[in-house]
Design brief:
Blueprint: H1 3-6, E1 13-16, H2 25-39, H3 50-69, H4 75-88, H5 95-108, H6 119-128, E2 133-137, H7 141-150, E3 159-162, H8 163-166, H9 173-183, E4 190-194, H10 197-206, E5 210-214, E6 228-230
Parallel strand pairs: 1-2, 1-4, 2-3, 4-5, 5-6
Helix pairs in contact: 2-5, 3-4, 4-5
Length: 240
């Protein structure tokens, strides 16, 4: 698509979420946590299995991320408390170990490269149509940039807007307004693609941006109705 054609399209700027949308966070994090479980010989310290450790960690991580997004804890609390609280569930009170695991997790994770099925194919399709693409992510800036480069998708994106850079987190409107301004876009001509109803979809909706909800596991419920719903990234070709 040339620039003349693009000006007649409804959407002129595409904003993506990274984790759980393009970059397969669950698979990549699972691999790192398994490495840490064995590296630190947690079985010898009373953790019965990696699967039990993983389930416990995920429970604490989800709760702490919710508190972080709401501003109740800072990022250092998030990084280390998810491990200290997990270990305490197995009666392991070891701050040194918690800090080591928290640091190692963030050091190893960004270099994992698993993307969702059809992610690169769709990005190549959109790039071939000359869509300007941008990223809006709540993740830590250095970590997110490494993830994108390691998985070979960084070159698709003109702007990467992180919560650190914007001084705001999704779903708050400020980060979306900042992204629109940074990209030189308008809300009316933009579309947001993400996996989280209460974060990506609600935030974009409140900023006047159309949304694509991509999640095969969590159905749409309640009053919030995304502009589009897809179960596979390949379906974006029917929209854009």
């Amino acid at each position: 698509m040339d620039s003349v054609s693009l000006q007649y399209m409804k959407y002129k700027h595409i904003f993506f979420d990274l984790d759980h949308t393009l970059w397969d966070f669950e698979t990549n994090a699972y691999q790192v946590l398994e490495e840490l479980y064995h590296t630190h010989t947690l079985a010898s310290r009373g953790v019965p299995s990696f699967e039990v450790f993983h389930r416990t960690y995920m429970t604490h991580n989800e709760k702490l991320w919710d508190r972080f997004r709401k501003g109740f804890i800072n990022r250092n609390d998030l990084r280390f408390k998810r491990f200290s609280m997990t270990l305490l569930d197995f009666k392991i009170g070891d701050d040194k170990l918690s800090h080591a695991m928290g640091t190692q997790f963030l050091e190893i994770l960004p270099y994992k490269t698993t993307l969702f099925p059809n992610a690169k194919e769709v990005l190549e399709y959109l790039a071939a149509k000359n869509y300007p693409m941008h990223m809006i992510t709540n993740g830590f800036e250095e970590t997110q940039l490494i993830k994108m480069k390691s998985s070979g998708i960084d070159h698709f994106f003109t702007h990467v807007i992180t919560s650190e850079l914007a001084g705001s987190l999704k779903p708050y409107r400020e980060i979306f307004d900042y992204a629109i301004k940074t990209a030189g876009a308008t809300a009316e001509s933009s579309i947001m693609i993400g996996d989280a109803l209460e974060i990506d979809i609600l935030g974009a909706h409140n900023a006047g941006i159309d949304q694509v909800y991509f999640n095969s596991l969590v159905p749409v419920t309640g009053a919030l109705k995304p502009t589009y719903v897809i179960r596979d990234l390949h379906e974006l070709k029917n929209i854009l």
